[in-house]
Amino acid sequence: MPVARHLLVASLSLFAAAAGAAQTHYAWVGTYNPNGEGLYRFTVDAKTGALRDKTLVSSLPNVAQLTVSRDGKTLYAASEVEKGVVQAWRIEKKRRADRAQPGRLRRRRAGVSLPDAGR
Asked: Where is the signal peptide, in residue numbers (predicted)?
């Protein structure tokens, strides 16, 4: 689990940097089925690093890789399913600055092909 913790910290750091001077920061967390339900958004306490306000924003199964665009306006989520899926989400600030809600942009199949030698 130490590796997962370091990856989460690195992801939070990258997202905080992308957020610029904004006072409210968010962490996007993907989970695997059957115990996880999909993609979650948390509010990050800037002073303590604590995660709060867990909100399920998508039931996309087996969310494995997440990244936020440099401008902080788009979230990309890869789903490890048989045919592979990548979804892009527009991160919209609704009425209150502390409620970033993703709106789905696109969903596309994703995959990697290897030559017969497997290299």
From this structure: 1-21
The per-residue pLDDT for range 75-108, each reduced to its tens digit, is: 888 888 877 788 888 887 664 433 345 555 555 5
Strand order in the sheet with 25-30: 25-30, 39-44, 51-58
Q: Where are the domains of the chain?
A: 2-109
3-class SS string, 31-57: CCCCCCCCEEEEEECCCCCCEEEEEEE
Q: Give the model confidence (pLDDT) of 49-83 as tens digits.
A: 999 999 888 888 888 889 888 988 888 888 888 77
What is the spatial distance between Cα 37 and Cα 62, in angstroms, rounded to a whole number? 8
DSSP assignment of the chain, as one string? -HHHHHHHHHHHHHHHHHHTT-S-EEEEEE--TTT--SEEEEEE-TTT--EEEEEEEE--SSEEEEEE-TTS-EEEEEE-STT-EEEEEEEEE-SSTT-EEEEEEEEEE------TT--
